[in-house]
Amino acid sequence: MKNSKILGTGASLPEKIVTNFDFEKKIETTNQWIVERTGIEQRHIANNSETATKLGASAALKALQAAGLSVTDIDMLIVATATPDKVFPSTACLIQEELDIPAIAAFDITAACGGFVYGLSIADQFIKTGHKQNVLIIGVEVLSRLADWTDRGTCILFADGAGAVVLGPTEEQGILSTHIYADGRYKDLLFCDNPLATPDSDNNFIRMRGNEVFKIAVKTLSNIVDEALKHNHIDKSEIDWLVPHQANIRIIQATAKKLGMSMEQVVLTVAKHGNTSSASVPLALDEAIRDGRIKRGQLILLEAFGGGFTWGSALIRY
Ligand SMILES: CC(C)(COP(=O)(O)OP(=O)(O)OC[C@H]1O[C@@H](n2cnc3c(N)ncnc32)[C@H](O)[C@@H]1OP(=O)(O)O)[C@@H](O)C(=O)NCCC(=O)NCCS
What we know:
four-stranded mixed β-sheet; alpha/beta; five-stranded mixed β-sheet; binds coenzyme A; 24% strand; Peroxisomal Thiolase, Chain A, domain 1
């Protein structure tokens, strides 16, 4: 069995930036409240032409370039998104067409904020078993289209963007393990109804019982990072970087504390990006790889948690 390793990463963000001060003018909130409770200072919001397809394709091209590969080298394309441009074809098919990628396996997965780690896990299995060579995994969201701009408990949190990773085979170490889970019993704590199925629902926007989500996220993420370490017989002191889902700075701080890591070893983009769901981990990963913080050979831990609930982790020798 081969291992899979990260060959290249890419990112794409909408041009428009909305700051907390912009929200102060529209809803009853303050910059201070948002920063203290979430760590978010600003977020990128897509215009009508910045679709999931366009953002995803743009991040994918940069990841391919970083990997030194062309579109014909890719033999599987996985898109994690809760905000596809169409019911079908999948966003993966739309991005495939946009990038002119010949016939390959291409599909979307819906696992909300856990989606990118799910995609990474699926791609890893295909590469390890030799069924696929180079797999493109994209996490992309245009969550602003699902925001209730009158609900101050959610509209300040969620945002838009795309991150992409190319995974390929290696004889050396790469992805050491991935761990993915879901528990549908929590479906009512964080959800968005489908307006096609329930046109009269009051919940055709993101709905969240934030405080309950917060507590479960902290507990679950602690358990899953423990599991990843135990599985690989690795001590927490060996981890160089934590690349967490960027939902809330306080959830991230709690996970870092549990790992005994200083915040200097945590890749943080929540202040600039807000919560971009399945795009948040690959966006953070790309930033820290491109600015030279994450170096080849280092040990990195990815984790995510989101609606479903879904959650997962990946321990990676970069
Ligand atoms: C959403 C979140 C930031 C709210 O913070 P919180 O400390 O839990 O706040 P609460 O929801 O308990 O609300 C506390 C008060 O702040 C108010 N509030 C909520 N949003 C506000 C805002 N944007 N500005 C000012 N006040 C706000 C509430 O109305 C409430 O007021 P009340 O006490 O008068 O009823 C936090 O719960 C959170 O981050 N949850 C998890 C998010 C997450 O991880 N989501 C998805 C996983 S992908």
